[in-house]
Write a structure and sequence with these properties.
The structure is a single chain. The longest helix has 10 residues, at about 5-15. The chain is built from one helix and 37 strands. A five-stranded mixed beta sheet has the order 1-36-35-34-33, with no helix packed on it. Strands 4, 5, 6, 8 and 9 form a five-stranded antiparallel beta sheet that branches. Strands 12-11-10-37 form a four-stranded antiparallel beta sheet, with no helix packed on it. The chain has one helix at about 5-15; strands at about 1-5, 40-45, 50-55, 60-70, 75-80, 85, 90-95, 100-110, 115-125, 130-135, 140-145, 150-155, 160-165, 175, 180-185, 190-195, 200-210, 215-220, 225-230, 240, 245-255, 255-260, 265-270, 275-280, 290, 295-300, 305-310, 315-320, 325-330, 340, 345-350, 355-360, 365-370, 375-380, 385-390, 395-400, 405-410. Strand 26 and strand 27 (about 305-310) form a beta hairpin.
Length: about 425
């Protein structure tokens, strides 16, 4: 289902009115046309809940609302025994089952006419997870609901939005902005905070939720730092003891972090205790890295034309890609497999490099993320966010972005 982003909807709610005919209900044939920007029922999935909203406050003939819910294929039933008051604009439907799709519709109680149905049936599928999206084109960071039908909020506008990373211990999303000397983070309710630090041009960012550590590259100084994510009031940065020329990608795991230096054509795993655990050199034009739970890394090389697995034993395994322009990769931290997207296809390799699956005729993606807990794959193109199931079938898509660059999953396991 194609769903437009809600930023337009939200901005129009406050700006549109029917001031010259306020005494007409919205179903009156002489009333102004609402379109889809005013009054329309919105259902937003959350963790075991769906938040519903509407707005018919411009019409004085409405005496109340009747809100109905059903599971797909079932019969509609009232959510509240008594009608909701005319001034009410929202309702939270709680204690739902995650993964179950619910349908909602709204009935208006119009003076002298009784109940009248209005609008379409809205669907929502609650879940514990959420997807955070960096839209570099607009400078906004979005928190997308688990069913990918709607977005809960957007925050920004960041001047030079570079990277995002979710701390699954707190649900906060960290942001690196090349135009700010420090880092931002957004909490689960959408409150934006800034932490100033000695960074000149923040770049790639990685969060180790289990260890409570964050890692960030400074693109101007060509340095990498680590910091504690639990002390967000005043970050103390510790420099990675290495001579770097162009740190382009980081992958944090188990108190350590993989650092890819494109210009020096190397990658190494560095511990926050100050130890270099393993290092690989002569990696041709590496672009990005991801790691599994035990620290094994997957790196795109040759500007995305190749894929290499880097083991903690110092052994490297190169895997042939079915395309020459890989854009992004994501690792299943549980089983060590890797997903790579490029040139209209997605390929899934096992930990040993065997090809598990390949999906053809998929959107040309800019970023990919894998929710291994639920068997879901998320792909960001320039303007559309896609959600696929394990068979590669489209579950949902959300349109209206301008230039997405990064995805980060909040797994909701706190």
């Amino acid at each position: 289902m194609i769903t437009r982003l809600l930023i337009v909807l939200c901005s129009l709610w406050g700006g549109l009115s029917c001031s010259d005919r306020q005494r007409l209900n919205p179903l009156d044939p002489e009333a102004p046309q609402l379109g889809e920007s005013l009054g329309h029922l919105v259902a937003m999935a959350g963790d075991r809940r769906v938040d519903l909203s509407w707005d018919y406050s411009s019409f004085s003939d409405i005496e109340g609302y009747l809100l109905y819910r059903r599971e797909v294929g079932g019969a509609f039933a009232l959510l509240a025994e008594e009608p909701l008051p005319a001034k009410q604009k929202a309702y939270s439907d709680r204690s739902l089952t995650n993964g179950t799709t619910y349908e909602y519709r709204l009935g208006l109680l119009v003076a002298g006419e009784g109940e009248r149905s209005v609008g379409s049936i809205e669907r929502a599928t609650p879940g514990a997870e959420a997807m955070w999206v960096a839209d570099r084109g607009s400078g906004l960071v979005w928190k997308v609901n688990p069913d990918a039908r709607t977005a809960r909020f957007a925050r920004g506008r960041f001047f030079d939005l570079w990277d995002i990373a979710v701390d699954n211990a707190s649900g906060a999303c960290w942001i690196s902005d090349g135009g700010f000397n420090g880092l931002y983070y957004i909490d689960t309710e959408g409150v934006v905070s800034e932490v100033k630090a000695a960074l000149e041009q923040p770049g790639d960012l990685a969060i180790d939720s289990a260890a409570g550590l964050g890692w960030v590259a400074d693109r101007r100084r060509n340095e990498v730092f680590w910091f504690s994510t639990t002390n967000r009031d005043s970050l103390e940065f510790f420099v990675v003891d290495a001579s770097l020329a162009e740190p382009v990608s980081l992958a944090a795991v188990a108190g350590s972090c993989w650092v890819v230096d494109r210009l020096q054509e190397r990658a190494f795993l560095y511990s926050s205790a100050g130890q270099r655990i393993v290092e690989f050199r002569s990696l041709p034009r590496p672009t990005s890295v991801e790691a599994d739970a035990d620290g094994t890394a997957w790196v795109l090389v040759r500007d995305g034309a190749g894929l290499v697995r880097l083991g903690l034993d110092g052994e490297a395994l190169e895997v042939d890609l079915p395309f020459s322009d890989a854009q992004s990769l994501a690792v299943n931290r549980r089983d060590g497999s890797v997903w790579v997207i490029g040139e209209g296809a997605i390929v899934h390799f096992g930990r040993s490099g065997e090809r598990i699956a390949q999906w053809e005729d998929v959107p040309v993606g800019r970023a990919i993320a894998v929710d291994w807990d639920r068997g879901r794959t998320w792909v960001a193109t320039v303007s559309t966010l896609w959600k696929f199931n394990e068979a590669g079938e489209t579950m949902a898509r959300l349109e209206g972005f301008s230039a997405m660059t990064r995805l980060s999953i909040d797994r909701g396991q706190r």
